[in-house]
Each structure stands twice: as C-alpha cells, then as structure tokens.
Amino acid sequence: MSTKERRERERAELREKIIKAAEELFAEDGYKNISMRKISAKIDYSLPTIYQYFKNKADILFYIYQENNGKLLEVMSQISTEKHSNIKKLKLMGQAYIKFGMENSNYYELAYMSNAIRYEDELIYNDMDSPGFKVYKLLLDTVKGCKLEGYFKNVDYEITAQCLWSGIHGIISLLIMHSEFPWKDKNLLIENMINQLIK
C-alpha cells in the first residue's frame, strides 16, 4: 500500500469514527445538547481536527441522514424490483424497514423519534429528492400497485401508506425505547403486526 493510499484510508477511518461518535452522542444526550467539542472529546481528537472533516454539527447530522437513508433506499429499491405481487413487496418493505430501524437504533431514534433535523434551519426536511423521501415515494407507488391488485379498496392510497408507516414506526419505537419490557416473541410480534396492517 502506498503512502497516499494509507493516508486516504486513515482519513476515511477517522471520518467514520467522528460520525459514529456523533450519532451515539446525539442519541444518548439529544442533538441540541451536543457540541463539536463534545464529539472531539469522545474520540480523543483535537477540535481543529474534527473541523477538517465537518464544518459544524449540522454538517455531521446531514451526512448521517443521507448515509443512513441511502442505505434504506438501496434495500427498498431492491425489493421494489423483485418479481413479487405488490402486496408481497409491501410486506417485505415493512419487514425491511423494521429490520433497518432495529439494526440502526441510534439513527432511528435521532431521525424518526427526536427528528433532530428540525433544529437546523439550513437543513431542508421535505426535500423530495432526498433518499428519505425517495423511500416514501417507493412506499406510495407500492400501495398504488396494491390498489390495482384489489387491496385497500375505497381508501386513499396516501392515507393508507401513512397509516402503514405510522403502525410500523410504532412497533420500532416501542422495541427500541422499551427493550426491557417482557416481549413474548419479538419476531412473532413483528410478523403479526405486518400481517394485521397489510391484508
């Protein structure tokens, strides 16, 4: 490995370390309570070093949103191209969304439970070209497809999509925030929730 390649790898590793530390701190103590100084202290790097990678904490937050929603978009896009009925795709999307939320609980809490982006005026929430809204568009298109297959009759497709999202969000939030609750069988709970919502 050349010196240049090693430096690039080290920069990428430090960038990822900054992002991970910020995500953990935002989730633990609340976005508003975290400063760039606290992030630098967590990873034991100087503040000027952090500023070489991100101009402020809003810049870090934007990156976290884009990166995580981009991963979710990849998963949902893949499901949307599979050769299944739309109702099957919708169930798979529900399962994938729950899996994403549980595997990325710090991000999920930050983005969907505290909605930290609302604290930064320079960050646009309702950017229709953002990965997050593209995921929502996939959901809408799939629900539309389900209506063509005879499901969700006499109900507005966007209301249906938002109801489904709300229900799935609820179970993720409960499982994250109340992990100590004696859930009987989480997998069975998730399966039954999706089957009740999407039928």
UniProtKB/TrEMBL annotation:
InterPro entries reported for this sequence: Homeodomain-like_sf, HTH-type_Tx_Regulator, HTH_TetR, MT1864/Rv1816-like_C, Tet_transcr_reg_TetR-rel_C_sf
Residues within the DNA-binding region(s): 35-54
Protein name: Transcriptional regulator, TetR family
Keywords: DNA-binding, Transcription, Transcription regulation
Organism expressing this protein natively: Clostridium acidisoli DSM 12555
Domain (HTH tetR-type): residue spans on this chain: 12-72
Superkingdom in the source lineage: Bacteria
Pfam families according to UniProt: TetR_C_33, TetR_N
Source species taxonomy: Bacteria, Bacillati, Bacillota, Clostridia, Eubacteriales
Record-level Gene Ontology MF annotations: DNA binding
